[in-house]
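tmp note - Glutamate-aspartate carrier protein
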Amino acid sequence: MKGQNKLFIAIIIALLLGVGIGGIVHVQYPESAEPFSKNIKLLGTVFIRLVQMIIAPLVFTTLVVGIAKMSDIKMIGRVGTKAMLWFISASLISLFIGLILVNWLEPGHVTKLPIQDVASADELLKSSKSFSLEDFVKHMIPKSLFEAFATNEVLQIVVFAIMFGVALANLGEEYSKPVVKLFDIIAHGILKMVGYIMWFAPLGVLGAIAAVVATNGFEIFKVYAIYLRDFFFALGVLWLVLLLVGYFILGNRLFDLLKRIKEPLLIAFSTTSSEAVFPKLVEELEKFGCNSRVVSFILPLGYSFNLDGSMMYMTFASIFIAQIYGIEMTIGQQITMLLVLMLTSKGIAGVPRASLVIIVATCSMFGIPPEGIALILPIDHFCDMGRSMTNVLGNTLATSAVSKWEGQLTEPLDKI
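out:
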């Protein structure tokens, strides 16, 4: 745990340094803010790309090994069913919390936001127009495994890996054992790389935070204070619900779990990427005592189907935009919107800024000006910090809970 604490402290220091350096550049050298931001952001880019480099092979190998080792198709079906029940329940609860709190707090009625140039939303508007059931199916089912690997399409890799793993499980040990052993070795080799890559995290955090503060300054916190305050309050309520459910299932072991994932949570918060901590989460959950087969099966699925923070943000942001434009929506319309978001948001985790794309598509559907997304684009980075952190917590609890329900949660490996 000493190494983990050192890294955690290094990330905190990097976070504070990033805010300080970004603030100095914004105040003292405003003319250099844009080039400075562009250059220092490269530190974050390096870290994110290093992590992205290992996500596809790690998801593929761990999932294939996990399913092939199960060898019992009934167990695969049972674990998958429990996982999907958790994902659907958690998604509905997250959407409802966002819906209830945005109606109660009404940030759009009390916040006077400057009207942004809608050109900043052009890219999102264009990408949202192509969203359809056909695109969803294409996004889920791979045309080529190699294309899915090249573009880091996690859901497509998951679909292929599940089918391949099930096929290996039914092939018999004589044929499957050498393949499973090879993939197992590769997975462990990649996990070893995780330890090296994580030491780039403080630099990534420093670069990401300094770039945002240098460009926007501290004023951005004042302008959007009410919106951010209300959104993070809603996130706090969601955390409370998730942790209460977690405590009900895991008991006092929940506190040990939170201690183990404090570093991934902070990295997700700082870099706005829940993907960045996927390899580290696999490692920590296995050390916590979760069955490796369950971890390698549930966690990749969770990254596509169990994004609690993003789900809550979708209802919150959509109704907020309606409030800004003075559009009153009936309870029936809002419930319908919730169900639409529930369906359309599944499986688009690989799309850049996926939450915003779905919000734009949903606003268009309900007569809310989709250009309103430009109003929240300047602070989306800060909202994304909270969303990413919450997504990590939700997936951690889902994996631990399913392990417990399967009777596969053992004592922590580093305490045995």
